[in-house]
């Protein structure tokens, strides 16, 4: 929200909204000059000065004289978010790996660990234990704990956002798991835990820092064993009534097709998921990531069966995307996961099917792009999720720090 | 928005937002007691009194002592919107009919005309001329012109909301028609024209006054020759980048199926639209509304082929809805147009397919209901569209009236 829209409000409301606008800029872009902050927020130079001084006083940012820029007049001071002054812990539960990261206030990753696991590793107890261990291996965490704002968790499953209840995660064999509460207890870090679907978080990060930057209407498609989707509409995540929206892998595209692990038949993911790719390439469907890499390499080398397999996945991918383009009229479709690795081969095929299957008007609005944040997209999206309460109202946190200071004075 | 959320804003902003809240209540529900307004807006009794006095001063509402209610204390005065103090003209361009209506400030229809036309009537010139004529036949319009706020138009086509440009209306054979500008000129009423897709407007009115009242997440499905959709997400219409969203009839559900008038193959509407129903019932696909009524009557009477035809449409309807429920996680799916007439027969079939094809979590959130506003839903939705600028900021209009009063004083 641009600051000048806020003119008609009382000063405390204005202050909080403006602090939020600045926190988002600093978190989203890192160091910025005061002039850039003026340009990007629409706030006056003197308002920016006052707001920045609050961040500096709270030790969340520092100001440095920027390099002379060769222009007349004084160079605009550079406002630098203090990376370690506020951090989050991000966790990811994928089908065949777990990951943990610490992300700093400036949006950069301070430390990151990922461990591969056999598919279906996957009891809730084992995953919880492994995540606690993985978190314990983050060297920087003990030092940064006082600056820890919260924990964000990405999971390959259907999540109720309110309370982090995993309704179902078919690829893990989970159902009705109170993951948020469990992890808060198991991690025992004294901060809240936020849980969301991995594709929703992939969409969020591609929008903020990746292929969809600047777009307000996005469809993110994450292809792995299952196919998930993250949808952003007018700048907001489409969550649906209870956070279950975006399960695009389970649109029926071929009622005469294969049965799906969800219990239905002919779901989109039976035609475009990892197993469909491997099957079409003549490999065992359960070959996993290594087999997928083999197909990618073979297709890149022009081997017939691999190319045909990728083309067939691309055809079905395009057919399904066309339908979703007609329903959602998005600006960008971002291909993530498996599809981002295959993007150079897939995108031309998808574009072709869009020309055939999508209506001309929404077709003309949309571009198809490969995800830029690769395998870490959901993990980095989880970090954004954990930063969100702070970014929405940094004043509450500045206030809390003041209280602490007053109490200890 | 509830009034009490607005506490932290400056008085003029608060006043405008509160006037809007009251205008929406009076327009949405008709006469309300002051006590009901207090309960519904969260504003204080004295704030309500002041705001109501502005509507009364502008002749937009009147206050009457309500009937004694048998409770102790004075009965709360009844605030009655003055139906004819602010009106809109609503127009609809359907495949086989045109309609015009005048809708009053209290949300009720003052006058309504519909004329049937042969399918594909449909040059832009002829439709424009017919709409101007139809409007000319509204007896009350000359008298109400000073109170006319705007014109709302529903059309069976893909519309860019900004400027009322019809990108494509396949069932009319239109492409790139600047309908908003054309109608503004042709009607020459001196008020703005707003154009939107008929299914989007059906969704709007079902949400405000029909089967989805109280829901924030809605999928409205209008079945006619084509199948259109109106999607509401978190209380806002899902328009997409350029207003083209909701073209659910052109999701590919059966790539081995029939070719569609959009140029694609196996679109959902080729399995569930009017022609599919007639074909399955053994009637000519181009039989039109009369043939459809015949099938409905035969199915209701239990005739085998008609029942089988409805069941098959229901099966495909359910398969497609299941996919959209997985993507959108809506609270209500409203069956409109053709489907609302068949709802008692269709809904059980749709529910069955939802059980089979939708994921358990979003399935548990959703109910399927018949549209309540029947064939006039898009027309009445168009009236809401034309009322929207006034409802969003009645203060601007009250102000304008003050200026007029001051100028003529």
Structure description:
The structure is a homodimer of 409-residue chains. By secondary structure, chain A is of the alpha/beta class. The first copy, chain A, has helices at 11-29, 34-41, 45-57, 124-136, 141-144, 179-187, 198-209, 269-272, 274-280, 288-300, 304-328, 338-341, 343-357, 360-365, 377-392, 394-408, and strands at residues 32-33, 61-64, 78-81, 87-93, 97-104, 109-116, 148-155, 158-160, 165-169, 174-178, 193-197, 218-223, 227-233, 236-237, 332-337, 367-370. Chain A is globular, with a radius of gyration of 23 Å. At the A-B interface, strand 13, helix 11 and helix 14 of A face strand 13, helix 11 and helix 14 of B.
Short description, anyone?
Two copies of one chain form a homodimer. Chain A contains 16 helices and 16 strands. With 409 residues, the first copy, chain A, is of the alpha/beta class.
